[in-house]
Please model this.
Amino acid sequence: MSGLVLENVVAGYRGRPVLHGVSLSVPARGSLTVVGPNGSGKSTLMKTVVGLVQPQKGRVLLEGEDVTRLDAPGRARRGLGHVPQEANVFRSLSVSENLKVAFEFIPARSGATFASRLEAVLALFPEIRPKLKVAAGHLSGGQRQMVAMAAALMPEPSVLALDEPSAGLSPKNAELLFAAIARIASTGVTLLMIEQNTRLGLAVAARGLVLVAGQVKAEAPATDLLSDGLMQSLYLGGH
Model:
């Protein structure tokens, strides 16, 4: 299946588990959105996936390789792109410089040039093409998120992990951002997303997973979760 797999992961802080035996899989070219109430362990799950938190038990597999003991840079070099919720761009650098830094930190896995990768990501984010010379700190919140995603895509990751991409955005900017995320998914990159806006998050994914109190409460096609009134009222709020 390749892609991204978590097997019976127990993880937390100072020996106290937050995740209790979480298993999930996102097949190559697939997409999964993780939703759930506040305090359900979504942030810990993302940190465990990208290597910022080491599991106490269980395994993390990336394209069939056990990366459980690799740190975040090690997983990035293996093809895992990550867009954190906060501090995800260099605000004093221009958009072009942000993309250049990302490319130089981890060169494209195919050996592509910076110019070719730049054109590829700008095709996904036409909104930022006119802003290449603008400092990222002068952009809107939605535009900064697009720059962060574009930077994560510069090295051609096989898996892209997005942490609460709509956080702090207006409804209009969130809609524009998720249109861009849908374009990313269509390229074939394997996509894992943590998202509080259940409607937008599930609408762009093939499957959804509901995390409650550090455990998987449900996993199903995203459209099924969106239409499940009981699941919505119990766990997913009004989004």
The domain at 4-236 is CATH 3.40.50.300 (Rossmann fold).
